[in-house]
Amino acid sequence: MRNWIIPIVVLGVALPAWADEHLPPVTSETVKTECGACHMAFQPQFLPRESWRKIMRRLPRHFGSKVDLTEAARREIEAYHLANAADVSDSPEGRRFHESIGTGAAPLRITHVPRWAAEHRGAVEPAVWADWRTGGKANCRACHRSADAGWYEGN
Ligand code: HEC
Ligand code: HEC
Questions:
Q1: Which of 8, 43, 94, 139 is 20 to 30 A from 100, comparing alpha carbons?
Q2: Distance (Å, rounded) from C-alpha 33 to C-alpha 41?
Q3: Which residues line ligand 1 (CB under 6 A)?
Q4: pLDDT by residue (tens digit) across 65-100?
Q5: 107 near 47, Cβ under 8 Å?
Q6: Nearest ligand to the C-alpha atom of residue 17
């Protein structure tokens, strides 16, 4: 009987830890299509509401690109991001991203969030970011193959 107890205890500890790191995958088809056209559709849980408001206002000048949306799509995408943002989401990882930003700040990039920087410091050789095969810091899927499903730990 004793050998039964050990695996149960290990699982009991490990499962909530995995769930804690997992981000909910994007469920809006409009977001997946429109915001996933040039890069992955980033989970809204990575940035607070004020960041998404700014990003949505600036879509005609979006990081050197122009994002064209119908008014209906724009509204739907903004509502989805505001409802699931780091500062309102119940995702533990989202909350940690929000806490690292602090209230008031509204970065335009996930890669500028202190927690993002902390999680990658020492984990990635600087030369790897510059390598054309990586495609830059925002190309999460180059290293996180299950990023769309919300899994970022491991590869
Ligand atoms: C026409 C192409 C295009 C579309 C469509 C697009 N983006 Fe982007 N986006 C970019 C480019 C280019 C960058 C800069 C990538 C880089 O620096 O490597 C970027 C960067 C971002 C970043 C910052 C990533 C980081 O942390 O560095 C966010 C957040 C973002 N986009 C959100 C969105 C949202 C939300 C939508 C849908 C409304 C969207 N994007 C649609 C081209 C696009
Ligand atoms: C050049 C490869 C690379 C790119 C690109 C990259 N990451 Fe990472 N990321 C890593 C490594 C390595 C780690 C640390 C080891 C691990 O946990 O997988 C990490 C860790 C993380 C973690 C912490 C996972 C945990 O264990 O809690 C998150 C969240 C994360 N990355 C999100 C992102 C997001 C979002 C993007 C895109 C905006 C991104 N990463 C782009 C390599 C990368």
A1: 139
A2: 8
A3: 34-35, 37-39, 42, 55, 62-65, 67, 77, 109-111, 136-138
A4: 999 999 999 999 999 999 999 999 999 999 999 999
A5: yes
A6: 2
